[in-house]
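Target protein
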Amino acid sequence: MSQNIPDNEKPKEESVDLAAEFAELGKKIRSTVETAWTSEERKKIQSEIKEGLERFVKEVNEAFKSARTSDTGQKVETEIKRVTEDIESGKVANEVRKGLVTGLRSLGNVLDKMADSFSQDEGAPKK
């Protein structure tokens, strides 16, 4: 036998507030990031990285000082100066710009083809 329960006595369906759910998730992420950022472990790692980088820079500087006096070092230094001049003159920036434009245009063409395939699918008869 089925019972007829009046509408006012039926259990209410829980409404879902997506915006509130996203807000809550955002708060949790913020809290987690803040906790991780202020943790002693992060500070310790940062200190170790800083010390390691300082040692690295010192070693690299020593290597460059030694290398500069060799013939190979002189050639490398000349090449570095040439590359620096190319960068300062805008030569490198123009090449990078051209490469980016080519890549962006290719991506645009691919997106156009993808959009065309979607619009063609919409006009096709459904099975």
